[in-house]
Specification:
By secondary structure, the protein is mostly helical. Helix content is about 50%, strand content about 0%. It has twelve helices and no strands. Helix 2 runs parallel beside helix 6, helix 5 packs across helix 7 and helix 10 packs across helix 11. The longest helix has 27 residues.
């Protein structure tokens, strides 16, 4: 057996990429810049920051295209299957190798999320029940990624992999929010999400504790404006959340309830 190239510090994964190329006649799926990324340098201007973000998104979508091409050769009729870890390769450019997310790309932390919830959301992206609104840029980026999965078995596999990633600590980003005031707003959420925001699978209510506060706030805003949960036929659980989000009287109330949820994970 030939020894792996010394230029690749992750020899096992490098070998798997080479195996894919040999087996299916395809290039290696992705280049995984996040695994070996050098410490970030301070941006000298907003233009530099925006350009870096655009480059990361382009890499993300390129990874999706290559993954879809590769998986097309090993779908239901191909007789081969990729592991959840292999499938997650295409997610790394935005969500990170450790699933910690990237706020600058509006990609939330997903490490440790319940497999049933990740699987359900991927299926919503695939069907168009989520991520189809033209004003939902992050959702529209997620659609091609979800559709690169060849079948439901692949969706379940990557969801299981994500659920096994160690949860990453979240950092508070909200300013001017009142957690004590938010506690009163959260009282109406307890019936589904639990007193500790631990979630309830029986009600299709995910855990909220430990989630990025900026992401929770964004999703509440999306529910309120109809970017998410507007169609009760295609997304009944999202429609229920939209109704609950509309009970919050203001954006300040949304910030307050999210600030309170954040205290439940400390």
């Amino acid at each position: 057996m030939n020894s792996p190239s010394p230029a690749c510090p992750r020899t096992e994964r490098c070998g798997r990429d080479k195996a894919r190329k040999k087996r299916y006649g395809l290039p290696a799926i992705v280049s995984r810049p996040n695994r070996h990324r050098a410490p970030a340098q301070a941006h000298t201007s907003n233009d530099r920051h925006n350009e870096d973000s655009k480059m990361s998104v382009r890499n993300h979508l390129s990874s999706a295209a290559l993954l879809a091409l590769a998986l097309g050769a090993c779908g239901p009729t191909g007789g081969a299957a990729f592991s959840g870890e292999d499938l997650y390769d295409a997610c790394e450019n935005c969500h990170g190798a450790d699933g910690a997310g990237a706020p600058e790309l509006k990609a939330p932390a997903i490490a440790g999320m319940a497999a049933w919830y990740v699987e359900g959301q991927l299926k919503k992206f695939r069907s168009g029940a989520r991520g189809a609104h033209p004003d939902d840029d992050p959702g529209m980026r997620m659609r091609p990624m979800s559709k690169s999965m060849p079948n439901d078995e692949a969706v379940a596999a990557v969801a299981q992999y994500v659920s096994r990633l160690p949860k990453q600590p979240s950092v508070s980003t909200l300013e001017g929010a009142d957690a004590k005031r938010g506690a009163s707003y959260y009282a109406t959420c307890i019936a589904c999400h639990g007193a500790s925001a631990e979630g309830m699978r029986a009600l299709n209510a995910p855990a909220l504790s430990g989630a990025n506060d900026w992401y929770l706030l964004t999703q509440i805003r999306n529910f309120k404006t109809g970017l998410r949960g507007a169609d009760p036929m295609s997304d009944p659980t999202g429609s229920q959340m939209r109704a609950m989000a509309l009970t919050l009287p203001s954006d300040q109330a949304a910030k307050d309830v999210v600030a309170y949820i954040s205290t439940l994970s400390r």
